[in-house]
Specification:
Elements: E1 33-34, E2 49-55, H1 61-70, E3 75-77, H2 78-85, H3 91-97, E4 102-103, E5 106-107, H4 109-116, H5 120-147, E6 152-156, E7 171-176, H6 179-187, H7 194-202, H8 207-213, E8 216-219, H9 224-238
Parallel strand pairs: 2-6, 2-7, 3-6, 7-8
Antiparallel strand pairs: 1-3, 4-5
Length: 245
Amino acid sequence: MLSCPGRGAPYNGATQTRDRNGHGIWNGPGSAVRHFVPHRVRDTGRIMFILGLTGSVGMGKSATAQMFADEGVPVHDADAAVHALYEGKAVPAIEAAFPGTTVAGKVDRTRLGERVIGHPDEIRKLERIVHPLVAKVRDAFLAEAQRAGAKIAVLDIPLLYETGGERLCDAVVVVSAPAEVQRARVLERPGMTDAKFAAILAKQMPDAEKRARADFVVDTSRGFDAARAQVRDILARVAKMPNRR
Protein backbone atom coordinates (compact mmCIF):
# COMPACT_ATOMS: atom_id res chain seq x y z
CA MET A 1 0.00 0.00 0.00
CA LEU A 2 0.89 3.54 -0.25
CA SER A 3 2.14 4.75 3.06
CA CYS A 4 2.22 8.45 2.39
CA PRO A 5 2.17 10.45 5.64
CA GLY A 6 4.00 13.68 5.03
CA ARG A 7 3.75 13.47 1.25
CA GLY A 8 1.46 16.34 0.37
CA ALA A 9 1.62 16.02 -3.40
CA PRO A 10 -0.26 12.71 -3.78
CA TYR A 11 -3.23 14.19 -1.98
CA ASN A 12 -3.39 17.69 -3.46
CA GLY A 13 -6.99 18.77 -3.98
CA ALA A 14 -8.49 16.04 -1.82
CA THR A 15 -10.10 18.52 0.56
CA GLN A 16 -11.89 20.38 -2.17
CA THR A 17 -15.50 21.35 -1.98
CA ARG A 18 -17.14 19.58 -4.90
CA ASP A 19 -20.24 19.96 -6.98
CA ARG A 20 -22.72 17.09 -7.41
CA ASN A 21 -20.59 15.42 -10.07
CA GLY A 22 -17.53 15.40 -7.91
CA HIS A 23 -15.62 18.22 -9.55
CA GLY A 24 -13.55 20.50 -7.35
CA ILE A 25 -14.80 24.06 -6.89
CA TRP A 26 -12.03 25.35 -4.69
CA ASN A 27 -8.73 23.90 -5.84
CA GLY A 28 -7.20 21.33 -8.14
CA PRO A 29 -3.92 19.94 -9.48
CA GLY A 30 -2.32 21.59 -12.43
CA SER A 31 -2.63 19.22 -15.35
CA ALA A 32 -5.58 17.18 -16.54
CA VAL A 33 -3.40 14.46 -18.03
CA ARG A 34 -0.61 12.88 -16.01
CA HIS A 35 2.70 12.27 -17.74
CA PHE A 36 2.98 8.73 -19.04
CA VAL A 37 5.40 6.60 -21.03
CA PRO A 38 3.66 6.46 -24.41
CA HIS A 39 5.32 3.38 -25.87
CA ARG A 40 4.69 0.86 -23.12
CA VAL A 41 0.96 0.21 -23.39
CA ARG A 42 -0.11 -0.30 -26.96
CA ASP A 43 -2.56 -2.52 -28.80
CA THR A 44 -4.32 -2.06 -32.11
CA GLY A 45 -6.34 -5.28 -31.85
CA ARG A 46 -9.20 -4.22 -29.57
CA ILE A 47 -11.20 -1.29 -28.29
CA MET A 48 -9.41 0.63 -25.55
CA PHE A 49 -10.29 -0.49 -22.03
CA ILE A 50 -11.43 2.34 -19.74
CA LEU A 51 -10.48 1.90 -16.11
CA GLY A 52 -12.09 4.14 -13.49
CA LEU A 53 -9.98 5.16 -10.51
CA THR A 54 -11.45 6.54 -7.31
CA GLY A 55 -10.98 6.64 -3.56
CA SER A 56 -11.92 8.62 -0.49
CA VAL A 57 -9.90 11.47 0.97
CA GLY A 58 -6.46 10.47 2.22
CA MET A 59 -6.44 7.04 0.60
CA GLY A 60 -3.59 7.70 -1.84
CA LYS A 61 -5.52 7.95 -5.09
CA SER A 62 -3.26 10.58 -6.66
CA ALA A 63 -0.12 8.59 -5.96
CA THR A 64 -1.79 5.49 -7.36
CA ALA A 65 -2.84 7.39 -10.48
CA GLN A 66 0.79 8.32 -11.02
CA MET A 67 1.75 4.66 -10.72
CA PHE A 68 -0.61 3.81 -13.57
CA ALA A 69 0.96 6.62 -15.57
CA ASP A 70 4.44 5.27 -14.75
CA GLU A 71 3.36 1.97 -16.31
CA GLY A 72 2.58 3.73 -19.58
CA VAL A 73 -1.15 4.22 -19.10
CA PRO A 74 -2.62 7.62 -20.00
CA VAL A 75 -4.48 9.05 -16.99
CA HIS A 76 -7.15 11.74 -17.10
CA ASP A 77 -7.44 13.83 -13.92
CA ALA A 78 -11.00 15.15 -13.64
CA ASP A 79 -10.13 17.69 -10.95
CA ALA A 80 -7.26 19.06 -13.00
CA ALA A 81 -9.56 19.41 -15.99
CA VAL A 82 -11.92 21.58 -13.94
CA HIS A 83 -8.99 23.59 -12.63
CA ALA A 84 -7.85 24.30 -16.18
CA LEU A 85 -11.37 25.28 -17.23
CA TYR A 86 -11.54 27.71 -14.31
CA GLU A 87 -8.50 29.40 -15.79
CA GLY A 88 -9.69 29.25 -19.38
CA LYS A 89 -12.79 28.31 -21.33
CA ALA A 90 -15.24 28.36 -18.42
CA VAL A 91 -14.29 31.82 -17.17
CA PRO A 92 -16.54 34.02 -19.36
CA ALA A 93 -19.66 31.96 -18.74
CA ILE A 94 -19.02 31.73 -15.00
CA GLU A 95 -18.48 35.49 -14.73
CA ALA A 96 -21.69 36.10 -16.64
CA ALA A 97 -23.65 33.75 -14.38
CA PHE A 98 -21.91 34.75 -11.15
CA PRO A 99 -20.65 38.33 -11.50
CA GLY A 100 -17.61 39.16 -9.41
CA THR A 101 -16.37 35.59 -9.04
CA THR A 102 -13.46 35.94 -11.47
CA VAL A 103 -10.24 37.89 -11.01
CA ALA A 104 -7.61 38.59 -13.65
CA GLY A 105 -9.20 36.18 -16.09
CA LYS A 106 -9.47 33.29 -13.67
CA VAL A 107 -12.23 31.96 -11.45
CA ASP A 108 -11.70 32.86 -7.80
CA ARG A 109 -12.69 29.58 -6.18
CA THR A 110 -13.27 31.13 -2.78
CA ARG A 111 -15.67 33.70 -4.18
CA LEU A 112 -17.41 31.12 -6.32
CA GLY A 113 -17.73 28.75 -3.39
CA GLU A 114 -19.31 31.48 -1.29
CA ARG A 115 -21.89 32.03 -4.02
CA VAL A 116 -22.88 28.42 -4.67
CA ILE A 117 -22.18 26.21 -1.66
CA GLY A 118 -25.38 25.64 0.24
CA HIS A 119 -27.49 26.93 -2.64
CA PRO A 120 -28.74 24.01 -4.77
CA ASP A 121 -30.12 26.22 -7.54
CA GLU A 122 -26.78 27.97 -7.89
CA ILE A 123 -24.93 24.65 -7.89
CA ARG A 124 -27.15 23.45 -10.73
CA LYS A 125 -26.49 26.67 -12.65
CA LEU A 126 -22.75 26.13 -12.28
CA GLU A 127 -23.07 22.49 -13.32
CA ARG A 128 -24.88 23.48 -16.51
CA ILE A 129 -21.85 25.57 -17.42
CA VAL A 130 -19.05 23.29 -16.33
CA HIS A 131 -20.25 19.75 -17.00
CA PRO A 132 -20.50 19.97 -20.80
CA LEU A 133 -17.00 21.46 -20.90
CA VAL A 134 -15.63 18.74 -18.63
CA ALA A 135 -17.24 16.08 -20.82
CA LYS A 136 -15.59 17.55 -23.92
CA VAL A 137 -12.17 17.49 -22.24
CA ARG A 138 -12.69 13.89 -21.10
CA ASP A 139 -13.92 12.74 -24.51
CA ALA A 140 -11.01 14.47 -26.23
CA PHE A 141 -8.59 12.70 -23.87
CA LEU A 142 -10.15 9.31 -24.60
CA ALA A 143 -10.21 9.92 -28.33
CA GLU A 144 -6.55 10.92 -28.35
CA ALA A 145 -5.56 7.92 -26.25
CA GLN A 146 -7.45 5.64 -28.62
CA ARG A 147 -5.80 7.25 -31.66
CA ALA A 148 -2.41 6.81 -30.03
CA GLY A 149 -3.08 3.09 -29.69
CA ALA A 150 -3.39 2.94 -25.91
CA LYS A 151 -4.66 -0.42 -24.71
CA ILE A 152 -5.94 1.02 -21.41
CA ALA A 153 -6.84 4.51 -20.24
CA VAL A 154 -7.59 5.61 -16.68
CA LEU A 155 -10.25 8.12 -15.64
CA ASP A 156 -9.26 9.51 -12.24
CA ILE A 157 -12.57 10.76 -10.78
CA PRO A 158 -12.71 11.50 -7.02
CA LEU A 159 -16.47 10.96 -6.61
CA LEU A 160 -16.90 8.40 -9.35
CA TYR A 161 -19.52 6.23 -7.65
CA GLU A 162 -21.31 9.16 -6.08
CA THR A 163 -21.94 10.64 -9.50
CA GLY A 164 -22.55 7.52 -11.60
CA GLY A 165 -19.20 7.82 -13.36
CA GLU A 166 -18.70 4.06 -13.27
CA ARG A 167 -21.05 3.89 -16.26
CA LEU A 168 -18.24 5.33 -18.36
CA CYS A 169 -15.86 2.55 -17.37
CA ASP A 170 -15.18 -1.09 -18.15
CA ALA A 171 -13.91 -1.68 -14.60
CA VAL A 172 -13.23 0.37 -11.47
CA VAL A 173 -10.25 0.52 -9.13
CA VAL A 174 -10.85 1.78 -5.60
CA VAL A 175 -7.86 3.03 -3.64
CA SER A 176 -8.22 2.25 0.05
CA ALA A 177 -6.45 2.07 3.41
CA PRO A 178 -7.46 1.31 7.00
CA ALA A 179 -9.46 4.09 8.66
CA GLU A 180 -6.70 4.89 11.14
CA VAL A 181 -4.17 5.33 8.32
CA GLN A 182 -6.58 7.52 6.37
CA ARG A 183 -7.27 9.67 9.41
CA ALA A 184 -3.58 10.13 10.25
CA ARG A 185 -2.77 11.17 6.68
CA VAL A 186 -5.59 13.68 6.41
CA LEU A 187 -5.01 15.29 9.81
CA GLU A 188 -1.37 15.93 8.88
CA ARG A 189 -2.51 18.42 6.26
CA PRO A 190 -2.14 22.10 7.07
CA GLY A 191 -5.36 23.59 8.40
CA MET A 192 -7.14 20.26 8.66
CA THR A 193 -9.31 19.61 11.72
CA ASP A 194 -11.47 16.78 12.96
CA ALA A 195 -14.56 18.78 12.02
CA LYS A 196 -13.33 19.42 8.48
CA PHE A 197 -12.38 15.78 8.05
CA ALA A 198 -15.82 14.68 9.22
CA ALA A 199 -17.47 17.10 6.80
CA ILE A 200 -15.46 15.70 3.89
CA LEU A 201 -16.33 12.12 4.80
CA ALA A 202 -20.00 13.04 5.02
CA LYS A 203 -19.96 13.96 1.32
CA GLN A 204 -18.28 10.74 0.22
CA MET A 205 -19.58 7.21 -0.14
CA PRO A 206 -18.24 5.05 2.72
CA ASP A 207 -15.01 3.31 1.86
CA ALA A 208 -16.50 -0.12 2.64
CA GLU A 209 -19.25 0.43 0.09
CA LYS A 210 -16.77 1.57 -2.56
CA ARG A 211 -14.64 -1.51 -1.97
CA ALA A 212 -17.69 -3.74 -2.21
CA ARG A 213 -18.60 -2.27 -5.59
CA ALA A 214 -15.08 -2.18 -7.01
CA ASP A 215 -13.60 -4.60 -9.51
CA PHE A 216 -10.16 -4.03 -7.98
CA VAL A 217 -8.90 -2.55 -4.71
CA VAL A 218 -5.44 -1.07 -4.20
CA ASP A 219 -4.50 -1.15 -0.51
CA THR A 220 -2.12 1.74 0.11
CA SER A 221 -1.13 1.07 3.71
CA ARG A 222 1.91 -1.14 3.08
CA GLY A 223 4.17 1.20 1.14
CA PHE A 224 4.81 2.29 -2.41
CA ASP A 225 6.39 -0.93 -3.61
CA ALA A 226 3.39 -3.00 -2.54
CA ALA A 227 0.99 -0.54 -4.16
CA ARG A 228 2.97 -0.55 -7.39
CA ALA A 229 2.87 -4.35 -7.46
CA GLN A 230 -0.91 -4.21 -7.09
CA VAL A 231 -1.17 -1.72 -9.96
CA ARG A 232 0.90 -3.97 -12.20
CA ASP A 233 -1.24 -6.98 -11.27
CA ILE A 234 -4.41 -5.03 -12.13
CA LEU A 235 -3.01 -4.09 -15.53
CA ALA A 236 -2.12 -7.71 -16.24
CA ARG A 237 -5.62 -8.84 -15.31
CA VAL A 238 -7.35 -6.06 -17.23
CA ALA A 239 -5.44 -7.06 -20.35
CA LYS A 240 -7.44 -10.32 -20.31
CA MET A 241 -10.83 -8.80 -19.50
CA PRO A 242 -13.55 -8.02 -22.04
CA ASN A 243 -14.88 -4.52 -22.46
CA ARG A 244 -18.23 -3.95 -20.75
CA ARG A 245 -19.40 -0.74 -22.39
